[in-house]
Specification:
The chain is α/β, with parallel strands linked by helices. It folds into three domains: 84 residues, Helix Hairpins, CATH 1.10.287; 122 residues, NAD(P)-binding Rossmann-like Domain (Rossmann fold, 3-Layer(aba) Sandwich), CATH 3.40.50; 61 residues, Alpha-Beta Plaits, CATH 3.30.70.1450. Helices cover 47% and strands 14% of the residues. α3 packs across α4 and α9 runs parallel beside α10. The radius of gyration is 31 Å and the shape is elongated.
């Protein structure tokens, strides 16, 4: 576990100095007193650790002066090391390390969750929406300066490079339902998509594309959907300007209405196979059914019978969009039946 300012990196140069002091003492006793290498090394280590054993051999005046220099170096090195460790603890390194370990244990308990790669502006928006929907997710972020923000927001997170296979495995990619590539770099998102797809072929991947030509590369890398925030926001703003009432009516999560869109997947072997659209929808409005072979039926007849592999899109209020057991992933926040 690496601390915020890097305890390992802090203690790196004191460790180098320790090796140099040991080499200095060993060489000095060998040259000044004419001792063997083992005797000189033993005397150096004994002097630095101040254990108080007797001298290996009697020291002359030059040897005693040299021993004083070794003791001074050892004490100074010890004080510097203690100050570095104390500074790390004062900066919250010890407590932060414990929090990270708790986060890792929490992530290991997740299943059918979502992974959000990076906690920038896009990643924070995704996390807020997941929170609003009650969806389990974990944020993977490598920037230490963002960690305090994630702690303040109460998100579950892992510190590390999301393009690394070991980090994605730690985030539970093999048992996750989906992954959102929200890193600022399109090249990094491509690599994340490639790695995640190789680890979980069934993972649903949504990727962010900043450059116009990156969408095709992300799709080839394994992304199921590619979103360009700039293009999407531009289209949304234009649609708002042209048809504001329509957008207000079907706005998902941001409008004044309680309406939202939901999808129902008819999995093979579920109790939805053979049931009619009207039976499944109830008071919700069926907008379309995409059949397993790819054909789309808009405004489907309520008497239409659903088959395995169908996907139905509904529009309705929160109160009427209830989970259908066995037919789809339950809407977050809904209670399972039975």
């Amino acid at each position: 576990m690496v601390a915020p300012s890097g305890l390992r990196s802090r203690l790196g140069w004191p460790a180098v100095l320790l090796v140099l002091v040991v080499a200095y003492g060993t060489a000095g006793y060998t040259l000044i007193e004419g001792w063997s290498f083992l005797d000189a090394l033993y005397m150096t280590v004994m002097t630095l650790t101040t254990v108080g054993f007797m001298e290996v051999h009697p020291l002359d005046a030059a040897g005693r002066v040299f021993t004083i220099t070794v003791i001074v170096m050892g004490v100074c090195l010890l004080l510097v090391t203690l100050s570095l460790v104390a500074g790390w603890i004062a900066e919250g390194g010890l407590g932060l390390g414990a929090r990270r370990r708790r986060m890792e244990r929490r992530v290991r308990r997740l299943a059918d969750h979502y992974i959000v790669c990076a906690y920038g502006r896009v990643g924070r928006s995704v996390a807020r929406e997941f929170d609003a929907q009650g969806v389990d997710y974990v944020v993977v972020e490598e920037r230490d300066d963002v960690e305090e923000q994630m702690l303040a927001d109460g998100v579950t997170y892992l510190m590390g490079d999301p393009s690394q296979e070991t980090v994605l495995r730690a985030a539970g990619v093999e048992r996750a339902a989906g992954l959102v590539c929200a890193v600022d770099s399109d090249a990094t998102n491509v690599y994340i998509a490639l790695t995640a797809r190789s680890l979980n072929p069934d993972l649903f991947i949504v990727a962010r594309a900043s450059e116009p030509g990156s969408a095709d590369r992300l799709t080839k890398a394994g992304a199921d959907r590619v979103i360009s925030p700039y293009v999407t926001s531009g289209r949304h703003m234009a649609f708002l300007a042209l048809r504001p009432s329509v957008v207000d009516y079907i706005e998902v999560g941001g409008g004044t209405q309680s309406l939202r869109l939901e999808e129902v997947r008819v999995d093979p072997g579920s109790d939805l196979v053979g049931r009619t659209v009207g039976e499944v929808c109830g008071p919700a409005l069926p907008l379309a059914v995409r059949h397993a072979e790819g054909e789309v039926s808009a405004h489907p007849d309520p008497a239409m019978r659903l088959q395995a592999g169908d996907l139905m899109v509904l529009l309705g209020e929160d109160a009427v969009l209830r989970p259908v057991e066995g037919g789809r992933r339950r809407t977050p926040g809904d209670a399972p039946k039975g």
